[in-house]
Amino acid sequence: MSSPPEGQRRSGSARSANARSLRALRTRIGQALADLTAGGGWTHQVAPSVRRSLRWFWFDGVFAASSDTVIASYLNLFVLALGGTRAQLGLTSSLSNLSAALLVLPGGALVERLGRHKRFVVLNSLVARAMLLCMALLPLMFSGSDAVLGVIVLAVAYSAFANVSVPAWTPLTANLVPLAWRGRYFSARNIAMVISGMVTTYAAGWLITLLGVPHGYQVAIAAAFIIGLAASYAFARIEVDPSAVPRDRGTARPVRQPLWEPLRQHPAFLAFCGAAAVWNFSVSLGGPFFNAYLVEGLGGSASTVGLLTVVNSLAALPGYRLFGRLNDRWGPRRVQLLTGLLIPIMPLIWVVAQRPWHVIPAAILGGFLWAGYGIAAFSFQLELTPSEHLPRWSALVHMLVLVSAAAGAAIGGLLAQARGYQAVFIATTLGRLIAALLFARFARTPAPPDGGATTEHAEVR
């Protein structure tokens, strides 16, 4: 039997080489995607179960951001489309924060008693997201003031159930993400969250403009519900949950001290709480009203809101990259201080804006700076909180944030109704600056007991 011609042999060899190259390329792409969704190549240094958990936590963040950003961008506009007023916008935000604040400390105590942090988070996330489905269906049954009241009640319930699990989420996160890589991991995760939120928010704005009101808002909120279910599923797949390890029956439960007793021994944590309360009060003075002013005062539309959200999200991407690394090198306090002193500039841009495109600089600056502030504030809170007090103390911080935000939103709503949006933006600017100066003066990184290097300089480089 004769051998194949030389040309056929070369052609077959070339095809074989191309197939090997394609397989190698697919392998490299697959490895890159696996590293990306786990938080980076450094995750090869941790146990396989931790790496898988970090990947599911990454997907949880992506889906949760897609769902939450739609609600954050369009809920107030939905209330206005149903016939709500400026004061009702402030009331919605205020009651949402207040209801969550009333539940978060009991939630922290319950988490400490029961453990099982992951189950607690998943259950409450499912109940919270069910409120979104009810919200989307509500205008089919009610209209006018009844529909507005119903949406406000459901928004309050959504916020309460979403926030009550924070005392369980925080320690689980602290145990899951290694301290030395925390800034880099949350930087990578937050970048993915920003991109997903940007895409879904712009798509929702386009859909709302296409379908009109209120039907466009209903479809967008229903989509947020479905995407939120995917986030709950991803979080349920996390394998690493130290709180789920059963206690030895012969081991007595630790005696719980009154909350105030250990707090007195940590003045740095108390100063952080005070500064956080003033900061969030000031932020919430104006927070609920920027998008409303964009539509009512500057003549924008739902698609304009979506476009500005995209601009804000794109600006956040380099912010996460830069401040994630600075958080590990400088320490979270310095990053929080730097961004906190610059953030008050943004509301002033809204004061002088005359057209929707005039607030683009505020969207760019806000996306960049808030990216760093979010990473640093969370990292600094974990740094200041002893691990044995993490559930209840994180609940305390969250309660203070929610109560102060509720007060700020309520006062902001009254101020907007009486004096207009510009007065609200000036008030939030002054409040943010005062809070940043209080943080600079009183919130300090405590020295370690052994006199060694602080965590600000102990990271792996």
Can you characterise this structure?
This protein is mostly helical. The protein has one domain: MFS general substrate transporter like domains (Growth Hormone, Chain: A), CATH 1.20.1250.20. About 75% of the residues lie in helices and about 0% in strands. The chain is built from 17 helices and no strands. It is globular, with a radius of gyration of 24 Å. The termini are far apart. The model is unreliable at about 245-255 and about 450-460 (pLDDT under 50).
Summarize this structure briefly.
By secondary structure, the protein is mainly α. It has a single domain (47-242, 261-457), classed as MFS general substrate transporter like domains (Growth Hormone, Chain: A), CATH 1.20.1250. The chain has helices at residues 6-38, 48-81, 86-114, 117-137, 144-164, 166-176, 182-211, 215-236, 260-263, 267-286, 290-296, 302-330, 332-342, 345-352, 360-384, 390-419, 421-442.
Provide keyphrases for this structure.
single chain, 461 residues, mainly alpha, Growth Hormone, Chain: A, 17 helices, 77% helix
Shape: globular
CATH class: Mainly Alpha
CATH superfamily: MFS general substrate transporter like domains
Number of domains: 1
